[in-house]
Amino acid sequence: MIDRRLFLLAAPVALAGCTTTGTSNPRLSALPPTLDPQYVKMYAAINDEPFPVPAVDISQIDPRFLRQEVAYSTREQPGTIVVDPNERFAYLVLANGRALRYGVGVGKQEGFNFRGAGTIARKAKWPHWTPTPDMIRREPDRYGPYASGMPGGEGNPLGPRALYIYKDGRDTLYRLHGTVEPWTIGTMVSSGCIRFINQDIIDLYGRVPVDTKVVVLPATGAAVS
What we know:
Layout: H1 4-10, H2 37-42, E1 68-71, E2 81-84, E3 89-93, E4 98-107, E5 116-125, H3 133-138, H4 140-143, E6 161-167, E7 170-177, E8 188-190, E9 194-196, H5 198-207, E10 213-216
């Protein structure tokens, strides 16, 4: 059961697309002249993990992509995760027309994105990462050295948590996961997975159980205005 009190505390506020690009976020003109201390606290360093989770420089991220409770109209039941690649948001649906909204990074090409309904069939802390054969084929120099995988830990592109999307009982190879490049949140940057700020994926991981429904809306590839 979702604890509404936790959401109120947050209110002010394929193994596919799991790679980094070094792209900076171009939409920073909306940043306020001073940073909200509640957001600074929300994205502070986490010191009780097996590996470091650094504080996020939120001045590098458009404020709309920071975690916050919002009004949200959907036919999906509370507890469902809805990902909108066009707007670069993921929603955890609440009751009474509300949702907890997270900014995300999505596939840099429309064909890289999973779409439709699936289920979180597995959750992992500090997950192991392996590039897919397609990723290695496209960029052998970049991904070939990791063909046997990378253990979880600092520098792993999946970050501190991963939620694994299955469909009809089969792994889709798409994940909801963290990132080593928080400034890319709000952009089309990955090879298809949905990346979150590390503090946000830790937050979402703690709120949803295995068998949670995930709906990924169709992506048009349009830029966020």
